[in-house]
Amino acid sequence: MAVKKDLLSVADLSRGEVEQLVEQALVMKQGEMRCLLPWRSVALLFEKPSLRTRVSFEIAVAQLGGHCVYLSPQEVGLGKREPVPDVARVLSRYVDCIVARVFSHQTLVSLAQSASVSVINALSNVEHPCQALADLLTIREKKGRIEGLRLAFVGDGNNVARSLALLSAMVGVEFAIASPGGYQLDEDTVKRARSFAAASGSKVVVTGDPAEAVRDADVVYTDAWASMGQEEEAGARHRAFEDYQVNGPLLSLAKQDVVFMHCLPAHHGEEVTSDVLNGPASIVFDQAENRLHIQKAVLAQILLAPD
């Protein structure tokens, strides 16, 4: 039996593993792919609805020759209908891997602690590692390199920003984030990212000024101001972030060949204007497509880990 390896955070990977995943995903995207996971089964255990995450994982497993089972919130009721450890132990008797999309990161940790099979984080309130890995793949594809670039994130210091900060710092990408007061990236993540940056030769910039973050950036990235589960905060968040919209004037401060990224779904006219989202710099749909290819590489690496 292969060694159990979980992916709860991008920090669960080494720099070498990250770079290998990106290069493997590029090969897989070009169509050079084998039936790597015959008779392997993967459970998609979702507390939150999804478009990109569900479809990309289901297709990824199918293209690798495996079988996927989707489990909705109503079917499982994590921690309500049945304790999380019990769900983990039962699924471990049926499947080779659990891909979980949850509200609380602690649910994910509990799953991983109790499961005898690998657990992959398909989104929690703390991190979104598969999204960040797909983003890195897209940057590598569009820029031809990763190390030495500058990525500016404008908006909430949320799960996506957290994964991007850690991953960027790990692989030598300068990461700059601009957020309003009360919505900054947490200090522990900043400290950890700066430790990675010291090792890779990059740096992490935290500011309240979007112009400072975006100036001379190779990549400009934003996300929705209010995510699932934050609907009651939408009004307050809109007021807090109204000066953090990515628009033409802000994007013009970046490098001439800047690319714009958004993990989607986007709220046109809020965190980004339609002319930027649909403009020549936008690579958001390439980014969305690359969820499929990076997840094939992740699944292959985890499920084919040596004994």
Entry keywords:
single chain, 307 residues, alpha/beta, Rossmann fold, 2 domains, five-stranded parallel β-sheet, 43% helix, 14% strand
Task: Describe the secondary structure blueprint for this structure.
Elements: H1 15-29, E1 41-46, H2 52-63, E2 67-71, H3 73-76, H4 84-92, E3 97-101, H5 105-114, E4 118-121, H6 129-143, E5 150-154, H7 159-171, E6 174-178, H8 187-200, E7 204-207, H9 210-214, E8 219-222, H10 234-241, H11 248-251, E9 259-262, H12 274-277, H13 284-303
Parallel strand pairs: 1-2, 1-3, 3-4, 5-6, 5-8, 6-7, 8-9
- Provide the CATH superfamily of the largest domain: Aspartate/ornithine carbamoyltransferase
Q: What low-confidence regions span 5 or more consecutive residues with pLDDT below 50? A: none
| Oligomeric category | single chain
Question: How many beta-strand elements?
Answer: 9
CATH class of the largest domain: Alpha Beta
Counting H and I runs of at least 4 residues, what is the number of helices? 13
For the biggest β-sheet, the strand order reads 7-6-5-8-9
Mean pLDDT value:
95
Tell me roughly what share of residues is in helical segments. Answer: 40-55%
Structural class: alpha/beta
CATH architecture of the largest domain: 3-Layer(aba) Sandwich
- Rg computed from alpha carbons, rounded to a whole number of angstroms: 19 Å
- The shape, in one word, is globular
**Largest beta-sheet characterization:** 5 strands, parallel
> N-to-C SSE series?
HEHEHHEHEHEHEHEHEHHEHH
Number of domains: 2
Give the N-to-C terminal Cα separation. Answer: 6 Å
> Any idea of the CATH topology of the largest domain?
Rossmann fold
